[in-house]
Amino acid sequence: MSPASRTAAEPEVAALLAGIAAGAAERERTDASPFGEVAVVARAGLGALSLPVDEGGRGASVREVLAFVVDLAEADPIVAHVLRTHYSQVIGFLRHPDRDVRRRWLDEIRAGKVFGNAISETGPAAAGGHEFDTRLEEVDGRLVLNGTKYYSTGTLYADWIAVAARVPEDRVATVMVPADRAGVDVVDDWDGMGQSRTGTGTTTFTDVAVEPRDVLGSRPRLEPRPPGDVAFLQLYLHALVAGILRSVATDAAGVVRARSRTFEHAPTPQAVDDPILHEVVGRLSATAWTAQAAVLTAADAIDAVMAAWAEGEPTEELLLAASLAHTSVKVHLDRVALDAATTLFDVGGASASSRARNLDRHWRNIRTITLHNPASYKAAAIGRHLVTGAPLPTNGYF
């Protein structure tokens, strides 16, 4: 494992990542949930990376957070994906305008609490739209939450759930709900071929009591999300892919070193000396390096938006640059990453397809991540913007 971040280079963090990596392939083979591994990351304070140093964190930028996510995804992309909403929520808390509200939630982060999400809903409305059937209403003088959410990634492991709910005057509120509160039902029913233990299931809220102070605020239903939020969440997925690609390159080299025989017509009698296999491993390593570099470069564009937002000046030019950066990473990475995960098998014989080796997990995980939204639509939107000047979409999937 070659650390991408300063955090991973610290001996105690490197040991933590090595421990998570040691059982990752077996957990995926047996479909075991990494509850312990997620808890280890939280207890180590790594969920607080973005917090300022004087607030008990490391003052990490978006680039530094995503560099760590690449490392964590190399160790176990399931654990890294579980924490996607958590890291996004931390950024949101940091810029909350109310000092007391901010202090309360930063205390929870410092205590090692994990945040999940219940945002997405299914139905006839288009993905990325602004329709929500989940409601937060006042009933007999108290706030009550009712609704059903899907694709609640990470919520199975969470202490707190961030819920998007309709409120009066055509607004959407963000509501924080303890995962163990009466009426909250987190169902582990995600059956994807990859990322299978991320807890991406159904979450139902039935007459859930909500404290007024747990409502973070509301916005007009059709208003775009705050600058940088969507870009961070989307680029986070590509950081997962970059981490998986590092595992692909490492596993390819390991397969070649472990081969005890080769083909009679191979260029060398030992696979470990075969220049053709060397070339394949080299290309896979180059793909992994380039993916990581692309993710971190795009992260710089998001950091520029965050810095401008802090100064009250998130310009349209910066927002456009961040959107073009993270969407361009996806358009390119979706294809080369899947090709790399397939090419991995070219360095082994038929035994490389053994279920015991579980090398297909890389392809399955990458493919599942890429399906979050289609690269074809993103490429078309980029091209349309460049040719006609049409604005890029602003919904939560772009």
Automatic annotation (TrEMBL):
Belongs to the HpaH/HsaA monooxygenase family. This is Acyl-CoA dehydrogenase family protein. InterPro entries: Acyl-CoA_dehydrogenase (IPR050741), Acyl-CoA_DH_C (IPR013107), Acyl-CoA_Oxase/DH_mid-dom (IPR006091), Acyl-CoA_Oxase/DH_mid-dom_sf (IPR046373), AcylCo_DH-like_C (IPR036250), AcylCoA_DH/ox_N (IPR013786), AcylCoA_DH/ox_N_sf (IPR037069), AcylCoA_DH/oxidase_NM_dom_sf (IPR009100). Residues 20-112 form the Acyl-CoA dehydrogenase/oxidase N-terminal domain. Pfam families: Acyl-CoA_dh_2, Acyl-CoA_dh_M, Acyl-CoA_dh_N. Residues 133-208 form the Acyl-CoA oxidase/dehydrogenase middle domain. The keyword Oxidoreductase applies. PANTHER family: FLAVIN-DEPENDENT MONOOXYGENASE, OXYGENASE SUBUNIT HSAA (PTHR48083:SF19), MEDIUM-CHAIN SPECIFIC ACYL-COA DEHYDROGENASE, MITOCHONDRIAL-RELATED (PTHR48083). Residues 239-373 form the Acyl-CoA dehydrogenase C-terminal domain. Keywords: Flavoprotein, Oxidoreductase.
